[in-house]
Amino acid sequence: MRTLLIALASAGLMLAAQAGKTWDSLSQLQSGSSVEVVTSDHAEKGEFVSVSTESLTIRTRSGEQRFPRAEVVRIVSRGKSHRTRNFLIGLGAGAAVSLVADQTIGAYLRNESNPDSARPLIWTLPVAIGGGIGAAFPSYPVVYRK
After folding, report:
1. Residue 16 CA from chain centroid, whole number
2. Per the structure, how many domains does the chain have?
3. Which of the chain's termini has less CB crowding within 10 Å, N or C?
4. What's the CA gap between 138 and 57, in Å, rounded?
5. Which range marks the domain in which residue 64 is found?
6. What is the pTM of this model?
7. Measured between alpha carbons, how far is residue 22 from residues 11, 14, 62, 81, 92 in Å?
8. Do 31 and 50 lie in a common domain?
9. Backbone phi, then psi, for 97, in 5-degree steps?
10. Cα of 68 vs its chain's centroid, Å
11. What is the pLDDT of residues 32-63, one digit of tens each?
């Protein structure tokens, strides 16, 4: 039963993540905003110019480029990075794990044999790992995914 609930929750999260990434969501981009267009062949960075039902146009260093909708795999908005936010979320999750570990395993260690020498490790390791994992998550929001 528990495995079924986890599987359903995972499927729901995956469907929710895909819901807002349609071609119509490109209309939220403002002209001149920084984007990265990924096709099956390569990726190109530039400024958003326009979008139609058939294609997307961006301005690159070499001039304006038009990408047919069928070739576009993913479009990433490079306007604002979310790396700091992701890092802070990871730090918070690591601190929560550290608190739980300190109150359970740490209390046991302090009572039995190892007074306070394990406490820095219990707090430092999960916080550092959580911050690293948070910073490793993609930092730019995906606007469209095929």
Report:
1. 14
2. 2
3. N
4. 24
5. 21-79
6. 0.58
7. 19, 14, 28, 21, 32
8. yes
9. -65, -40
10. 27
11. 889 999 998 888 999 999 999 899 999 999 99
User: Rounded to the nearest 5 degrees, what angle is found at the Cα of 118, between the Cα atoms of 117 and 122?
Assistant: 145
Structural domain ending residue among the three candidates 48, 64, 79: 79
Tokens representing 104 are 């359970």
100 shares a domain with 87? yes
Rounded Cα–Cα distance for residues 85 and 27 (Å): 25
The residues with which 42 forms a beta bridge, in sequence order, are: none
Encoded tokens for 86 = 């992701």
Instruction: Give the model confidence (pLDDT) of 73-121 as tens digits.
Output: 999 988 777 788 889 999 999 999 988 888 887 777 777 766 666 677 7
Rounded Cα distance between 143 and 24, Å, is 10
Which has more pLDDT, 56 or 19? 56
d(CA 31, CA 29): 7
Task: Identify whether residues 87 and 106 lie together within a single domain.
Answer: yes
